[in-house]
Design brief:
Blueprint lengths: L8 H12 L1 E6 L4 H6 L2 E3 L1 H10 L4 E5 L2 H10 L4 E3 L15 H10 L4 E5 L4 H4 L4 E3 L4 H6 L7 E4 L2 H11 L4 E3 L12 H10 L4 E4 L6 H4 L5 E2 L2 H10 L4 E5 L5 H7 L4 E4 L14 H10 L8 H18 L2
Parallel strand pairs: 1-2, 1-3, 3-4, 5-6, 5-7, 7-8, 9-10, 9-11, 11-12
Helix pairs in contact: 1-13, 3-4, 4-14
The chain binds 1,3-dihydroxyacetonephosphate (13P).
The site of 1,3-dihydroxyacetonephosphate has 10 residues, from loops.
């Protein structure tokens, strides 16, 4: 049968979504074209909350692998697709389940808090998950006398430690290879160049303790969007992956957004393209499904996070 001709790739994606009973969930770092065609765009927390509400049979996840895995853990009865198996996350590969088990042996009463940027088998070893939007709130709610292992992001963990004043917290030495490039010297130079601009910084940014003094706000990606929506300032320096600039510029054409560095471009996130979304829906690939054993254990820390922090 002849292939149907569409007027645009967007129209083709809409038709395929209908045919497959699919919804597209996309992270704030996706390319603008994907954000515009997605059913829902958000940060890691909002995407987990949204995945739980999906009625469609198929979730096409336009993000990185740990996000698709999280959706599959939360919705084991759905088919979760990701357009590229190359869409990894450097941070999530910096801690392994056996390393968590070693810590537990020496801290049998301790609690493991895993940033959602971790693999399903690491989540399965953890007590709580958190995202950049709720890490402080979550740790604040945990019993003060319990030792905590925070994995895998050193900078987010350090931020949580500072904000909660918690001493009994071991922080893993992992980092996001993109955020670590955003350093205090760059923020200082930009602040001199754009004195009126407010600096919005993601807590994964490099050398957080030194960078913090330049930040007007330390926020998740969704937190930055919300902050700009409500702010009367007209210039912002955005210290995170540059994909976030698409929505900020689209929603606020009258405001100026300056990336903290143009090189904050995550090749993993950008594996997904409009063409690959079409391919994924046509071929129903790549399906992400964690084993039933891991799913059963990994859902507990995610659900605990959603209970404590909403969702
Ligand atoms: P958000 O929690 O803002 O979505 O950040 C996720 C992320 O992967 C940052 O690198």
């Amino acid at each position: 049968m002849a292939k149907k001709i569409y007027r645009s790739i967007q129209e083709e994606i809409q038709a395929l979504k209908k045919e497959r009973d699919a919804v597209i969930l996309a992270h704030n770092y996706q390319v603008g074209g994907i954000q515009d065609v997605a059913d829902f765009v958000g940060d890691s927390l909002a995407l987990s909350q949204q995945a739980k509400k999906v009625k469609a049979k198929v979730i096409l996840f336009s993000g990185v692998l740990f996000m698709a895995e999280t959706a599959s853990i939360l919705c084991p009865d759905k088919t979760v697709l990701i357009p590229s198996l190359e869409a990894g996350c450097s941070l999530s590969s910096m801690v392994h389940p056996e390393e968590v088990r070693v810590w537990r042996k020496s801290h049998p009463d301790g609690l493991v808090v895993a940033y959602v940027n971790s693999t399903a088998d690491v989540k399965a070893e953890s007590d709580y998950c958190c995202t950049s939007a709720n890490a402080v709130k979550l740790v604040e709610k945990l019993p003060k006398d319990k030792d905590i292992l925070f994995i895998p992001d050193y900078y987010l963990g350090t931020y949580v430690k500072i904000r909660t004043g918690r001493e009994n917290m071991t922080i893993w030495n992992g980092y996001c290879h993109i955020h670590v490039m955003i350093q205090p010297e760059e923020l200082e130079a930009l602040k001199k160049k754009y004195p009126k601009a407010e600096i919005l910084m993601h807590p994964e940014c490099g050398c957080l303790t030194k960078s913090m003094k330049y930040a007007d706000q330390i926020l998740s990606t969704a937190g930055m969007i919300k902050y700009v929506d409500q702010s009367t300032a007209s210039e912002f320096i955005i210290a995170t992956e540059t994909g976030l600039l698409h929505k900020l510029r689209k929603d606020h054409p009258d405001k100026i957004f300056i990336p903290a560095t143009d090189t904050a471009f995550c090749n993993y996130m950008k594996q997904n393209t409009l063409e690959s979304l079409v391919w994924s829906l046509e071929n129903m690939k790549y399906e992400i499904r964690v084993s039933a054993e891991i799913q059963k254990r990994a859902i507990t820390p995610i659900e605990r996070m959603l209970e404590v922090c909403g969702g």
